[in-house]
Structures are given as structure tokens and as C-alpha cells.
Amino acid sequence: AMETIWRVNARRMAGRGLVISLRDISDIEAASAQRRDFVANVSHELRSPLTVLAGFIETLQGPAGDDPAARAEFLDIMAGQATRMTGLVEDLLSLSRVEAVGKIRPRDPVAIEDVLRVTLAALRPQAEAAGMDLVCDLPPDLPQIPGDRDQLVQVYHNLIENALKYGGSGGRVEVTASVSATMAGFDGAVLRVFVRDFGEGIDPIFIPRLTERFYRIDKARSRDSGGTGLGLAIVKHILARHRGRLVIQSTPTAGSCFVTFLSCV
Ligand code: ADP
């Protein structure tokens, strides 16, 4: 629970004496605390690979630089760190793009079937490398929904990639969809897409925090698999822009299901 923070203002007004006003600034304070955390997180996330890079540069400048085997090994590690930084910067740019475009809902007609097909094709090599089956079973005649195609590709890319990364022990990832004629909180029909894995699942106590920026249950594991902790924050923002919703269901040891809800109108 958060405390309410009041800003007190006192002004002397002609003929009315002293006017004291109170304003609840809890939200403003919370937003600026979030911004400070964000900057601290970004700095930390960028500093770690930079420290590794600087260390290896120094090593290569010394006698170890003359040993071809050591050189090759160190350069590999350095390339990995550079890739990691690139991934982080790309995710940060995506996040700032979806935040910057504001509250107007994108309204191009988007064929979700096509979005899912493109996304699955892009992730198939990753699934194969991980020895995972990637199964997609969609009903015929899915409606087009108003939205931003590239952003929706990013939503499903992030969700399916996570299912492959964290649901590995289940051996399979399923993508399905359905349309409901009505649903509380939506005007008109709603398209639901389910991204399901059969991995270790998520302890329910972590679920509410998963969409926070930089939140990762197992930092080391996420980092090893190229994670930045921004993927689900991006998903949440894009869905919010579409006035949609993300619901995360999980049964520890049995797997997780990430469900997106998008209005068809
Ligand atoms: P990351 O870049 O770490 O993957 P995300 O924002 O995409 O960041 O996800 C946040 C965290 O949520 C992950 O680090 C992981 O701990 C957890 N997570 C996401 N998807 C799944 C999943 N399908 N199964 C288990 N845990 C997951």
C-alpha cells in the first residue's frame, strides 16, 4: 500500500486572507520514482557488458593478445557482449517508441492470422535449435482487427520467444485463437490469442510483476538466453495502446499460458 503524498500550498489573496490548498501528488511522486529506477536499471544493464568488454580489451592489449587461441576465445565473448548491448538498446527503443506515440489507438485493419504466420516463421529456426515443437492451430475466418501490424508482430514475437526460452522442458509451444462475441470491458467481439508452453510454469506470486520493466524471475537465466527483462513490458504497452489486455495463467511445473485480448471493433 502506498502512502498519500500531499503538496501544501499557502497563498495570501487580497480580501480573502490566507488560502491554503492541498494537492495529492502521490501519482506524480510514484512516476518520478519509477523514472529514477528505470534510469538506474538501464545504466546498470549497460554497464555490465561494458565492464566485460573493457576488461577483455585490456587483456588483449597485453601479452595474451599474441596467443591466437586466447584471442579467438576472447573475441567471441566480446562479440556476445556487443550483441547483448544491441538487444538491450533495441528493446529500449521499442519501448520508447510505443510509449511516445501516445494514446491514440492504431486502426489499420490487421489480419492476425498473417501476423501469427509471419511471427512463427521467424521463430521456427529458434524452435528447431531448441528441439521444440511449435504448433499453431487457428480457427478459420479470424476477423481483421484494427491495430498496428508491426507492433502486433512484436507482441506475439515476444510471447512465443519467451515460451520457447522458458518453457523448454515442455518440448512444445502451442498458439491458438478464438473469438468471443462479448466480454466484460470490451465493446463488441474480442479476439483471444493463447500462447501456451508446457515448461516449469511460474509461481503465482511473481505473475503480477512480470510486465514491469527489467523484472526477471531468474536474472542469470534470462541473461543467458539473451533476455533484457523488457519483453513483457513492451507487450503490455502495445496491448494498452490497442485498448487490449494481457492475462497470464500458469501452473507451476505444468506450464504457462499468455492470453492476449484484442477488440475486433
Ligand atoms: P526477458 O527478456 O527476461 O525474457 P520478459 O519481460 O520477456 O523479459 O519476461 C520477464 C520474465 O518473465 C522472464 O525473465 C521470465 O523469468 C518470466 N517469463 C516470461 N515468459 C515466461 C514463460 N513462458 N514461462 C516462464 N517464465 C516466463
Write the layout of secondary structure elements.
Blueprint: E1 6-13, E2 17-24, H1 26-61, H2 68-100, E3 108-111, H3 112-129, E4 133-137, E5 144-147, H4 149-166, E6 172-180, E7 190-197, H5 219-224, H6 231-241, E8 245-251, E9 255-263
Parallel strand pairs: 4-6
Antiparallel strand pairs: 1-2, 3-5, 6-7, 7-9, 8-9
The protein binds adenosine-5'-diphosphate.
Sum this structure up briefly.
This protein is of the alpha+beta class and 265 residues long. The protein has helices at 26-61, 68-100, 112-129, 149-166, 219-224, 231-241; strands at residues 6-13, 17-24, 108-111, 133-137, 144-147, 172-180, 190-197, 245-251, 255-263. α1 packs antiparallel against α2 and α2 (68-100) runs parallel beside α6 (231-241).
Describe the structure.
The protein has 265 residues and is an alpha+beta fold. 46% of the residues lie in helices and 23% in strands. It has six helices and nine strands. The chain has helices at 26-61, 68-100, 112-129, 149-166, 219-224, 231-241; strands spanning 6-13, 17-24, 108-111, 133-137, 144-147, 172-180, 190-197, 245-251, 255-263. A five-stranded mixed sheet has the order 4-6-7-9-8. Helix 4 runs antiparallel to helix 6. Bound molecules: adenosine-5'-diphosphate. Residues 158, 162-163, 166-167, 197, 199, 202, 210, 215-218, 222, 227-233, 256 line the site of adenosine-5'-diphosphate. One of its GO terms (molecular function) is ATP binding.
